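Hi everyone, sorry if this is the wrong subforum. Our group has a chain we'd like a structural model of before ordering constructs, and none of us has done structure prediction before. Sequence below.
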Amino acid sequence: MSHSKDKERARQRAVVVFAVRSGQITAEEGARRLGISRKTYYEWESRALQAMTEAMENKSPGRPNTQKDEEKQQLQQQIAELQNKLFVAEKTVEVRDMLHAYELQNAKVKKSSGKVVEKKRKQKKKQ
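Answer:
Right subforum, don't worry. Here is the predicted structure as tokens:
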């Protein structure tokens, strides 16, 4: 059965319920029009009125709350923790690279200053 046929049947049922509730027809006539027993009609009427009452209740604005998926939450927490660990690891590598570059630069300075000292010694010996 198609969705549009289901909707049309629901509309027809609602029209009958409203006609009975407004006193235009009896519950017996409404049940006959719907092809159901009077007992079933009253069950449908009760469900319809309950649904209408719930639909008319004030609801908080925005999207309705969704069920929280515990596994999804755990995975999101693990992702956040791993992202933090990755950030720390990347910064650690950057610091190591900077220290290595500093050590290389420092070694060059010592080496070049050592050469300068050696040249001065040789110059003093020549004098």
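For your construct planning: Residues 20 and 26 are 6 Å apart (CA to CA). The chain has four helices and no strands.
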